[in-house]
């Protein structure tokens, strides 16, 4: 009776075909946690590609605006950590980052808006 219970609770046998032979996955050696940097770089590249695919899908044509907006946000949080004026500065950093990203994307809406506000047509002289 104990043998049947042990069989039911045992992990199922999972095999993978490698070079024409079935290999039990449980018999495979555990990955070395100190694996080469190549594997880490491959995983980082896969994560970067997945993130870039998501950004391109969610914000088509505005990859740099999103990137530099997030970068400005992170920099502002690292420099200032709470308070009204610091939070206001966070917003300024984010807008500057988005404006720079838009400029790199070839769609400088914020820069053009500021130029229109400060342009020669609004000179009170």
Précis, in short:
By secondary structure, the chain is mainly alpha-helical.
**Terminus-to-terminus distance:** 100 Å
Q: What is the element string, with H for helices and E for strands?
A: HEEHHHH
Q: Based on helices, strands and strand pairing, what is the structural class?
A: mainly alpha
What proportion of the residues is helical, as a percent range? Answer: 55-70%
Describe the structure.
This protein is mainly alpha-helical and 125 residues long. It has helices at residues 2-9, 37-58, 63-79, 84-105, 109-118; strands spanning 15-18, 21-24. The protein is built from five helices and two strands. Helix 3 (63-79) runs antiparallel to helix 4.
Search tags:
mainly alpha
Question: Would you spell out the secondary-structure blueprint of this structure?
Answer:
Elements: H1 2-9, E1 15-18, E2 21-24, H2 37-58, H3 63-79, H4 84-105, H5 109-118
Antiparallel strand pairs: 1-2
Helix pairs in contact: 3-4
């Amino acid at each position: 009776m104990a043998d049947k219970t042990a069989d039911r609770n045992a992990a199922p046998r999972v095999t993978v075909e490698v070079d024409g032979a079935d290999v039990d996955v449980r018999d495979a050696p555990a990955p070395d946690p100190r694996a080469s940097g190549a594997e880490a770089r491959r995983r980082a590249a896969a994560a970067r590609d997945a993130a870039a695919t998501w950004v391109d899908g969610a914000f088509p044509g505005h990859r740099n605006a999103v990137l530099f907006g997030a970068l400005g946000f992170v920099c502002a949080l690292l420099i200032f950590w709470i308070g009204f004026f610091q939070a206001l500065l966070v917003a300024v950093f984010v807008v500057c980052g988005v404006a720079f990203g838009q400029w790199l994307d070839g769609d400088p809406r914020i820069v053009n808006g500021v130029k229109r506000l400060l342009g020669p047509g609004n000179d009170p002289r």
